[in-house]
Amino acid sequence: MDMKRKIRVGILFGGKSAEHEVSIRSARNVAEAIDKEKYEVRLIGIDKKGHWLAPQKSAALIGATSIPTSDVKSIVLAPESDGDITSSEGEEKIDVVFPILHGPFGEDGTVQGLLRIANVPFVGAGVLGSAIGMDKDVMKRLLRDAGISIAKFIVATESAPVSFKQAHSELGLPLFIKPANLGSSVGVSKVTTEEEYAPAIRKAFQFDTKILIEEYIEGREIECSVLGNENPIASIPGEVIVHDEFYSYDAKYIDERGASLRIPADIPPETTRLVQETAIKTYQALACEGMGRVDSFLTLDGRVVVNEINTIPGFTNISMYPKMWEASGISYTDLIDRLITLALERFEKQSRLKTAR
User: Fold this and answer.
1) What kind of fold does domain 7-122 have according to CATH?
2) Cβ–Cβ contacts within 10 Å for residue 69, how many?
3) In whole angstroms, what is the distance from residue 55 CA to residue 315 CA?
4) What burial class does residue 355 get, using C-beta atoms within 10 Å of its C-beta: 0-12 exposed, 13-18 middle, 19+ buried?
5) Phi, psi of 113 (to 5 degrees)
6) How far apart are CA 257 and CA 161, in angstroms?
7) Given CA atoms 309, 259, 269, 338 in this order, what sign does their dihedral have?
8) CATH of domain 132-149+218-343
9) Which SS3 state, helix, strand or coil, does residue 81 take?
C-alpha cells in the first residue's frame, strides 16, 4: 500500500437480507464519522437481488431507505485481486473492506469468504466466526459446550416439526420462536398460548429453513460490546429497557418509544465484571475477531444467560455497540479507526502464513 495516500476503505452495505434498510442506516453513519484525514471512503451498495453497485452510484444512494434493484452487476472483485475492483466507472484499489451487512449474505461468512479469496483485508469476524455467530443453533451448542449459560431450546425444520405439546412440555410458556439465521428480531414471535404457536412457526419459516423454539428467560436485557482479535476487551455494559412485549425490530429501529437504553447499565460492579467476563468468554468460544456485541439476560438470582452474539452489530445513531464504547472512552470515530487497524493487523499476520510445504 502506498502510504503517501489515504487508506481507501470500501464500505459494503445494503444486501439481500431482511435487514437491508438497517444496513443502509449503519453505513451512512460510518461514512459520516470516519476520519477523513486518514481514510478515503468508497461506498459499495448491494441491492436486494445481490447486485453490487459501483461507488459513484452507491454514493448517490446512501441517503435512500432502500437500494433500487439493478439489472447489471456493476462490480467485479476477482480471486487474488488484492482489492482491485472493476466497475462501469473503471478500476480502482480498495485497501480494506468494512462490511456493514447485517444478516444472511453479509454477516454469515459468505462475504467474508469472498473477501478472503480476493485477498483483501476486511473488518470483523472471519469466515468461521461469522458463520457460527449467524446460526443460533450452532452458536448455542458451542456456548453450552464452553460452559456458558444459555436458554433451553429446540430446533425445528419443515421435515422435523415440533408440536406445541412437545415445546410446551420441554420449555414451558411463554416461548420465543425465531429463525436460526437472522438478526434484528426479524421473524421473531413471543408465544403465550397454543393459538399463537402455529402462526409464529409459519412466520419464522418465511425467513429460514431452520427455526429455534426457546424457553422464556425472565431477566433484564444486558448488552456488552467486545473489541479485538487475540486479546479482546469488553465495554461498559448497557441495558435495554423494553416497553413492549420484547425487543422487536420496530423497537430497535423504528419506534423510539419501543425501548430505552441505559448506558452504563444500573448494576453492581461485581455484576458488571461478570457480564464483561462472560462477553469475552462468549466472543472467544465462538471464534470471533474484530467486533461483536454479546446480548444476555441478567436473571433475578444474578445469573448471566447469553442470548446471542452479533458479529456485525448495528452502527445506527441509536445502536448499542458504538454507544457502549463511547461510554467506555472510545469515540465513534476512534472505534472505526481501531476496527480498521485490527483488520489490517490480522491480514498482515495471515499473509505471513505458509500456503505450501
Assistant:
1) Rossmann fold (3.40.50)
2) 10
3) 20
4) exposed
5) -65, -40
6) 36
7) positive
8) 3.30.470.20
9) coil
Are both 7-122 and 132-149+218-343 of the same fold? no
Pairing mode, if any, of strands 7-14 and 39-46? parallel
- pLDDT band for position 183 (cuts 50, 70, 90): low
Provide the pLDDT for residue 181.
Answer: 83
For the chain, which residues make up each domain, given as ranges?
A: 7-122, 132-149+218-343, 153-215
Is the entire prediction scored with pTM above 0.85? yes
The one-letter amino acid code at 21 reads E
Neighbour tally for 88: CB within 10 Å: 12
Query: Which grid coordinates belong to 353?
Result: 502464513
Is the bond into 264 cis (omega within 30 degrees of 0)?
yes
Phi, psi for 98 (deg, rounded to 5):
-115, 95
286 has a pLDDT exceeding 80: yes
Report d(CA 270, CA 37) in Å as an integer. 41
Q: Please indicate whether residue 149 or residue 51 has the higher confidence score (pLDDT).
A: 149
Taking all residues of the chain, what is their mean pLDDT, rounded to a whole number? 90
Tally of CA atoms within 13 A in the half-sphere of 110 that contains its CB: 15
69-97: average pLDDT: 84
> In sequence order, which ranges of the chain are alpha helices (DSSP H)?
20-33, 55-61, 110-118, 127-134, 136-145, 164-171, 194-205, 249-253, 269-285, 320-327, 332-351
Least confident of 18-27, 67-76, 183-192, 275-284: 67-76
pLDDT in tens, 314-328: 887 678 999 999 999
Rama region for 212: left / alpha / beta (φ>0; ψ in -120 to 50; rest): beta
* Topology annotation, domain 153-215: Dna Ligase; domain 1 (3.30.1490)
Q: How far apart, in whole angstroms, are the C-alpha atoms of residue 301 and residue 218?
A: 10
pLDDT in tens, 128-161: 999 999 999 999 999 999 999 999 999 999 999 9
How many helical (H) and strand (E) elements, i.e. helices and strands, does the chain have? 11, 16
Average pLDDT over residues 150-176: 97
Residues facing 213 on adjacent strands: 154, 177
Cα–Cα distance, 67 to 347 (Å, whole number): 30
Task: Give me the pLDDT at residue 260, please.
Answer: 85
